[in-house]
Fold this protein.
Amino acid sequence: DPTMRPTRKSPRVVWPALALLLGSCAVNPATGERMFSLVSESQEIEMGRESHPAIVGSMGEYPSVDVQEYLDGLGVRMAAISERPDLPWEFTVLDDPLINAFALPGGFIYMTRGIMVYMRSEAEFVGVLGHEIGHVTARHSVEQISRQQLLQVGAGVGMILSPQVRANSQLLGQALQLATLKFGRDDEMQSDDLGLRYMTALGYDPYHHASVFSMLGTVASGGGDQIPEWLSTHPNPDNREQRILDQIHAREAAGGDFGDAIVGRERFLAILDGMVVGENPREGYFEEGLFHHPDLAFRMRFPSGWRTQNSKQAVAAISPQEDAVIVLAVATTNDPAGALAEFLAPEGVQAGERSEASIHGLPAVRARFRAETEQGTLDGLVAYVKWGELTYELLAYASSAVWASRSAVLTAAIESFQEETDADVLGVTPDRLEIVTLPSAMTAAEFLRRYPSTVEDGVVLQLNRVGADERLPAGSLVKRVVN
């Protein structure tokens, strides 16, 4: 009660903390052990439900009904035999090339297409799915969040964008904070055990659960851009693969028999056939400093040497000194004049010179502005350009101290927005996985020569987890990458 004013000698000041600690003991649904929790189940579900749109908005949902239904069907079956079948479980394949899988509190599970293309069977897929379900059933995120609350650890997102983008960025920051929680060794091993429990209960071959860790290690050792994101959010305990194998062997020694267990290789590879591999250029790509977006048919040049990023929500560039930023996004208000008025409306934003001059023949409005922020005073230029059915927000800003030296390059970037007319760019297509049934036995090296791919041979060998000299029997299903 905020009206209560306990005296210095009053013991009331300790009651909230004492009540907090007394009420923080809960029973782990998956293990039956005591756990520390300051988050109720309803709060846990609300966290996941609020963050889910930001995750999908940021990474995108893979545009295949068959792929989404495949994951959802397996996920629903596995969740039904878990210790928390009544959660509002939701399963999503993300259109993201990173090798990753993760869970949000409350039963929201995500697998990227990036991790799927490296798997070889439904049993492997189900093993990872069970591991992520295990993080939810054991409430690992809830326990971490509870400890952060107790220690009063928080995180904020400060972005000086339009009001809509700023609000979305705050929501995205909260969602990504949940998605990138790092679990400790004990939590990881517990989720491994739960994944093993769930997949064997559904009749799947547990040996394929162990083989996923071999794949992650192989891809990680190859370096480059394919280092699994899963290894950063899921710290890899020593001998993780061997630990699972030891449990399987112990079960077999006790009379367990996995000889007829489900592998599901053909069914899983049929789902993978045609899946996009790597970045999808249709959604935009950089050619040095020139950004092309084939699907939306525009191009824009960003300053040379700046660090750039293309995401589902925005394209951004930051100067090497990190004192100036350019952001390109789709405006939430489709009328350029209305969008500009909305941008300049908040308190603390001072409008400067305005113009309605077109940009490369496209209808546009723009304005200089100054904004007072927690990080200091910023000067900037914002433009809204109408192209096709969309209005684009082009935003450039820098600290007031450097605006004079940055304004020319920032203005040039905004003025470079234009229609894309290059036929090669407009016709670009992504790399896709193709499943080949071998007509005869051959080595992997012979396969690479006979069925060339659009990626390096080493990547194809990793996708199939074979060595160049390994002999592949006739009738084998083998992955290649085509365009």
User: Anything to note?
Assistant: Confidence is low (pLDDT under 50) at residues 1-24, 146-169. Residues 4 and 446 are 81 Å apart (CA to CA).
